[in-house]
Amino acid sequence: MPHLPLRYAGVSYYDKTRALERTEVSPEGVDLEYVRYDHVGELFRVIAQDPKAFDASEMSLSTLTLMTSRGDDRLVGIPVFPSKAFRHSQVFVNAQSGIEKPEDLIGKKVAVPEFQMTAAVWIRAFLEHDYGVKASDVQWFTGGLYTTDYKERLHHESPPGVSIEVIPSDKTLDGMLASGELDALTTAHQPRSFTSGSGAVRRLFPDYRSVEEDYFVRTGIFPIMHCITVQREIYEANPGIALALLNAFEEAKRLGRARLRDLDTLAVMHPWISAELDELKTSFAAYGGDPFAYGVGPNRHVLETLVKLSYEQGLAKRLVDVEELFAPETLDWAPAPVTDEAPA
């Protein structure tokens, strides 16, 4: 039987997906074409507006939740989570804004590339629940981070009591932050106005690692950003496709982790990467020792929190059940135990 041709679009992750991209791993019964996207926000806009643009793709968990709450089931989720990240490090403020602590954001002008982006959901959550800064306490501004060509990913109305404005078409969020026209920026990227070293922009949480470690200890949450989706028509016409993709992504990640363990020729520019992996096995014991564990089981607490936050923040039209997001046959899938395997 010929294999199913499948065009998949996603980020090229060195450790988690490179084996798939290089065809060292292939989903069972599938000829996978890996279409690399360097700007994942643009990919999410394409998929949200045209779910048939690719057969399968990496997808914003927040936007998938929003679509599901509207009854849009054209995408079937697979519990592969290639992107997870703490986001305290991604809140930036203009150095002259007078913002020294999170509470100082109240009454300020705060930028975000997309109000619905998953990173922004998690940031608004810790600002409100840990520091008492509600979304309605600030003025929100959206637009292009570096370019003036801004296109909304998926339209949604402003939540009740929340002000969201699009910046002028000839300006960018980064430029307005640097000039002081905006007081703060929540984003998934380090803005150029910060990395330039000019001093015009700084982090709200300079010691962000200790803040994020404390957050993890208190909440047990390592925030999920993205999942994998497949077109429903393809899913329904090809029984087994969801598990085939899930297993292939898991194997690719296993190979990537093994490569990181190779101390003969280090895979990344980190002299103590193996020691860091040992520490992570202990710190993320709740995830089976793998911070990037796939499957609903190890991530249920995080997933349930995300769908609840989406509804609380006025994005989802209703409270979505986690089970609605993913292919039913993947719900009980469990990852293999983490090993210290390294290439021979």
Detailed description of the structure:
This protein has twelve helices and eleven strands. The mean pLDDT is 95. Helix 4 (118-131) links the parallel strand 6 (109-111) and strand 7. The strands form two sheets. The protein has a six-stranded mixed beta sheet with strand order 8-7-6-9-5-10. The chain has two domains: 4-84 and 222-330, D-Maltodextrin-Binding Protein, domain 2; 88-219, D-Maltodextrin-Binding Protein, domain 2. It is 34% helix and 15% strand.
Summarize the SSE layout with pairings:
Elements: E1 4-10, H1 18-21, E2 30-36, H2 40-49, E3 56-60, H3 61-69, E4 75-78, E5 91-94, E6 109-111, H4 118-131, E7 139-142, E8 163-166, H5 173-179, E9 184-186, H6 192-195, E10 201-203, H7 208-219, E11 226-231, H8 232-237, H9 241-260, H10 273-283, H11 296-312, H12 322-325
Parallel strand pairs: 1-2, 1-3, 6-7, 6-9, 7-8
Antiparallel strand pairs: 3-11, 4-11, 5-9, 5-10
Strand order of the largest sheet: 8-7-6-9-5-10
Report helical residue fraction.
25-40%
Radius of gyration over all CA atoms, rounded: 20 Å
Strand content: 5-15%
Count the strands?
Answer: 11
Report the end-to-end length measured between terminal Cα atoms. 34 Å
The assembly state of the depicted protein chains is single chain
CATH superfamily of the largest domain: Periplasmic binding protein-like II
Which fold name fills CATH's third level, the topology of the largest domain? D-Maltodextrin-Binding Protein, domain 2
What can be said about the biggest beta sheet? 6 strands, mixed
Q: How many structural domains can be distinguished in the coordinates?
A: 2
The topology string of helices and strands comes to EHEHEHEEEHEEHEHEHEHHHHH
Helix tally equals 12
- Helix- and strand-based class? alpha/beta
